[in-house]
Amino acid sequence: MNKALITLDNVSIGYNSQPVLSGISLSIADASFTAILGVNGSGKSTLLKTILGLLPPVAGRIDAATSGAPLVFGYVPQSIQFDPIYLLTGFDVALMGVYGRIGPGRMVPAGERDFTRECLRAAGAEEFGGRRFAELSGGQKQRVLIARALATRPEVLVLDEPTAGVDREATKAVLEFVSHINKERKITVLLVTHDFASARHYAGHVIWLHEGTVMCGPTGELLSVERVAEMFERGEV
Questions:
Q1: Could you count the other beta carbons within 10 Å of the beta carbon of residue 88?
Q2: Above 80 in pLDDT, residue 230?
Q3: What is the per-residue burial (b if ≥16 Cβ within 10 Å, else e) of 201-226?
Q4: What is each CA distance from 6 to 32, 72, 216, in whole angstroms?
Q5: In whole angstroms, what is the distance from residue 220 CA to residue 204 CA?
Q6: For residue 96, what is the DSSP state?
Q7: Residue 132: is it exposed, middle or buried by C-beta count within 10 angstroms (0-12/13-18/19+)?
Q8: Interhelix angle for 138-151 vs 110-122, to 10°?
Q9: At 159, phi and psi to the nearest 5?
Q10: Fewer CB within 10 Å: C terminus or N terminus of the chain?
Q11: Rounded Cα–Cα distance for residues 160 and 52 (Å)
């Protein structure tokens, strides 16, 4: 088991000091692939925002740092839209991932542009990097957004239901790629989803938000066919 990269110690999450979920204690290992699973309204987005540092915990402590420096997160949203009046290409969108390093208003160095092309190539998006982002299919857009996240040089790749509204073939291609870079590049992956099948197939560990409780453990134990079937029979999922 790799060392813990993110640790939550008796954490409560919520808004305006009002907890939505409490008593969360868990660790996310370095280079792991973890799925955050739950139905709509279960608190997945709140937990994710808290881990990312966008929301302060209502109580408890979160340790998400390496060598004293905050972790670098690469974020892939469900989808992103740009007004077609902005003639942004796939490359332009992927290049946004380097802006946090170079600072606002500065010229993007040639080396960063070359690195962005490498990220597009790694994400299988190089061939449509020169096309207008607004004209790409859902699966193609998600690959560009993964390239943008990789361009941040992340220690943790966070995907917030990245295949929502994407067809089954594109969903498989995106998740197969994410699984590949997790294994090959040892990048820690957090996948937020409500898809039990995808979580069971790709994730090694699961954080399952269910009826106000937070369960965590190896996928094979928490999402065994027998356990999930039993919960479905009881009407709990």
A1: 15
A2: no
A3: ebbbbbbbbeeeebebeebeebbeee
A4: 11, 12, 14
A5: 8
A6: G
A7: middle
A8: 130
A9: -120, 115
A10: N
A11: 12
Which DSSP state fits 137? -
Whole-model pTM: value is 0.88
Burial of residue 41, with CB atoms counted within 10 A of its CB: 0-12 exposed, 13-18 middle, 19 or more buried: exposed
Check: CB of residue 38 under 8 Å from CB of residue 210: yes
The answer to whether the CB of 123 falls within 8 A of the CB of 170 is no
Contacts of 171-174 with CB under 8 Å at 24 or more apart are 171/139, 171/198, 173/124, 173/139, 173/143, 174/139, 174/142, 174/143, 174/146
DSSP 60: E
CA distance 216 to 28: 10
pLDDT, tens digit (0-9, with 9 covering 90-100), for 70-91? 899 999 987 777 767 778 999 9
Distance CA 170, CA 63 (A): 35
DSSP label at residue 176: H
For residue range 131-175, list pLDDT tens digits in order.
Answer: 999 999 988 998 999 999 999 999 999 999 887 777 888 788 889
At residue 214, φ and ψ (nearest 5 deg) are: -120, 115
Query: Which is nearest to 30 in space by CA: 156, 152, 150?
Result: 156
pLDDT tens, 17-66? 999 999 999 999 999 999 999 888 899 989 999 999 999 999 999 998 77
What pLDDT is stored for residue 205 in this prediction? 96
Do residues 29 and 2 make contact, with C-beta atoms less than 8 angstroms apart? Answer: yes
Bridge partners of residue 213, in order along the sequence: 210
